[in-house]
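ok trying this again, last paste got cut off
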Amino acid sequence: MRLQDVNTLQELISQMVIAISTGGNFLLNIGPDNNGRVLPIFEERLRDIGAFVNAHADAIFSTKPWIYQNDANSTIWYTSSLRNSNGTDPYRIYNPQDQDNTIIYAFVLDWPEDNLVNLSHVISNSKTNVILFGAGHQNISLNFTQPFTLNGGIQVDISNGYCFTSYTARYISNHDNFEY
């Protein structure tokens, strides 16, 4: 086996995020060598994916696809959860979009060079709050604007000197109410 035959951490995280955002499951096939040992490269990938999942558990576990799986021509993928799921079908395909009850998570798989994240499907209201979750469980409240070009969507600027070194994929959570 050659190193270039093994998916990078970024490739694996992207595959996992897309699977979660589309309502699927992510199965990572790691097999032992002929002596029954797990190769160090696979061990490293498993450890790193585990760290990513632990850091972003709120956006992964107990979530469903949002009504928009991703932004068109983008590397932003969405999941959502409900503050209160009483009375909802546990086998539903996606969460009902009740603006008082829905939390949106946006996974940004390719951080833009201009540090402007365009979330064209997230329509804000007066209660919208955007929080960036980064490495080391950092929760950073961010300001956003509503450029005319996004037709009501929001643009988040993270150029205020924040530096994230752990993973390419980040997620931005719209923790308060929104309109859709």
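PB: full thing came through this time. Residues 163-170, 174-180 have pLDDT under 50 and may be disordered.
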